[in-house]
Amino acid sequence: MNILPETEALLRRSYDAFNQRDIDTALATMDPNVNWPNMIEGTRVIGNDNLRAYCLTQFDVIDPHVEPVAFSDEDESIAVEVHQVLRDKRTGAVVADQTVFHIYELHQGLVAAMDVRDTEGTVTSAPRSKA
Question: Which terminus of the chain is less hemmed in, N or C, by CB atoms within 10 Å?
Fold first, then answer.
């Protein structure tokens, strides 16, 4: 699958909104039943309302900045190489400065699901339910 310019633009808009803490704009790029990893608890959240709650909780604990570096296609998914810097919200100390891959599935032009993979190719987000 080739990455369409509008797909890359959609994902960049989502990253920009996330980095600006504009949750409404970020959620506008998501399917209403988006399946998203909760990296804090090692679980998944389903749906925009649950993703909003997760983001707000995350922003209370850490100050993340996630910058897309490269986009590539992988079968039915899109892999985005990102550089992420996570800071402790209280102290400002960097708790992570790393490169990871966000693996997206889209449905009707919106993000339907996302997984996180490390640079070795291991999926580090909680697995999606097969139900």
Answer: C
Summarize pLDDT for 22-44 with one digit per residue, the tens.
999 999 999 999 999 999 899 99
- The residues with which 117 forms a beta bridge, in sequence order, are 101, 123
Q: Between the CA of residue 54 and those of 5, 18, 39, 81, 120, what are the distances in Å?
A: 29, 12, 10, 22, 27
The yes/no answer on whether domain 5-117 falls in CATH 3.40.50.720 is no
Percent of the chain with pLDDT over 70: 98
User: pTM of the full predicted structure?
Assistant: 0.93
Tokens standing for residue 31: 């399917």
* Interatomic CA distance for residues 94 and 127, integer angstroms: 27
User: Which residue type, as a one-letter code, is found at position 80?
Assistant: V
Domain locations in the chain as residue ranges: 5-117
pLDDT in tens, 100-127: 999 999 999 999 999 999 999 999 999 8
Q: Rounded to the nearest 5°, which phi and psi values hold at 129? A: -65, 145
